[in-house]
């Protein structure tokens, strides 16, 4: 009913040759994706075209950028627009990763504009949300994530929302080796889905893929993906090792 997705977020890692090797190694595994399953590779900007051409004959494999700018075009030296990404065949754009929020001061309001650009160009945002450790310890994570959803997504129409993928990434679990337990992940994913249902209706909520991210690896992916409201994963570190990434994809079914 809703797509099951494993997306690899390479972040600022690998040379072109290493990235090419990684994609070839993943393809070499001969994965047979089932109907409704997708694999997404989010490479650095300079490798997107290459990644797209390596994956073009592999149904179910897609390419994502890790960011784009909030304006359509113009004098924004160093930035990359959604239209540019669309023009080279990119499928998805990760938006609002906690590293972008922290190191590049991306606010919920700015992300709302980025989402508009991505959707206006026919691309699909993978919208990241998730709380820092202090918020989790204060047990106010639901309010925190609700506000992120509200300020970045609630201006969309139901039709637009259908093209949005949400990734829940508790910041305390990213790159730390700490993973949310499957119960913590399921609780938050169910909460996010209920928020989406309240705003956009049950039907839209049931069709929204919600991915988990944060130290997901072959050893815990099966349990996480087994949760009713977890529709796959956004994978950082483990997506840089072909065998691990492939093993995680295999946990989808
Ligand atoms: P991690 O990163 O898997 O290395 O924790 C996840 C992410 O930041 O998307």
From TrEMBL:
The keyword Cytoplasm applies. Pathway: Carbohydrate biosynthesis; gluconeogenesis; Carbohydrate degradation; glycolysis; D-glyceraldehyde 3-phosphate from glycerone phosphate: step 1/1. Signal peptide: none annotated. Homodimer. It is found in: Cytoplasm. It comes from the Bacteria. Involved in the gluconeogenesis. Catalyzes stereospecifically the conversion of dihydroxyacetone phosphate (DHAP) to D-glyceraldehyde-3-phosphate (G3P). InterPro entries: Aldolase_TIM, TIM_sf, TrioseP_Isoase_bac/euk, Triosephosphate_isomerase, Triosephosphate_isomerase_AS. The active site is at 97 (electrophile), 169 (proton acceptor). It catalyses: D-glyceraldehyde 3-phosphate = dihydroxyacetone phosphate. This is Triosephosphate isomerase. The keyword Cell division does not apply. One of its GO terms (molecular function) is triose-phosphate isomerase activity. Substrate binds at residues 9-11, 175, 215, 236-237. One of its GO terms (cellular component) is cytosol. Keywords: Cytoplasm, Gluconeogenesis, Glycolysis, Isomerase. GO terms for biological process: gluconeogenesis; glyceraldehyde-3-phosphate biosynthetic process; glycerol catabolic process; glycolytic process. Belongs to the triosephosphate isomerase family.
């Amino acid at each position: 009913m809703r797509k099951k997705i494993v997306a690899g977020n390479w972040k600022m890692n690998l040379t072109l040759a290493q990235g090419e090797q990684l994609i070839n190694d993943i393809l070499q595994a001969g994965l047979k994706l089932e109907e409704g399953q997708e694999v997404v590779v989010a490479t650095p900007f300079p490798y997107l075209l290459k990644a797209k051409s390596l994956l073009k004959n592999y149904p179910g494999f897609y390419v994502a950028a890790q960011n784009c700018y909030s304006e359509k075009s113009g004098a924004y030296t160093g930035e990359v627009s959604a239209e540019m990404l669309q023009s080279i065949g990119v499928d998805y754009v990760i938006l609002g990763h906690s590293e972008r929020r922290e190191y590049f001061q991306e606010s919920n309001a700015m992300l709302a504009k980025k989402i508009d650009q991505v959707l206006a160009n026919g691309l699909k945002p993978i919208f990241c949300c998730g709380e820092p450790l202090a918020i989790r310890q204060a047990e106010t994570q639901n309010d925190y994530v609700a506000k992120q959803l509200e300020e970045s997504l609630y201006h969309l129409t139901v039709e637009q929302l259908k093209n949005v993928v949400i990734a829940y990434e508790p910041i305390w679990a990213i790159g730390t080796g700490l993973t949310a337990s499957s119960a913590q992940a399921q609780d938050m994913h169910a909460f996010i889905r209920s928020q989406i249902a309240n705003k956009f209706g049950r039907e839209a909520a049931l069709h929204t893929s919600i991915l988990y991210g944060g130290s997901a690896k072959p050893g815990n992916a099966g349990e996480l993906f087994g949760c009713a409201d977890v529709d796959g994963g956004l994978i950082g570190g483990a997506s840089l090792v072909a065998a691990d990434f492939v093993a995680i994809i295999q946990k989808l079914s």
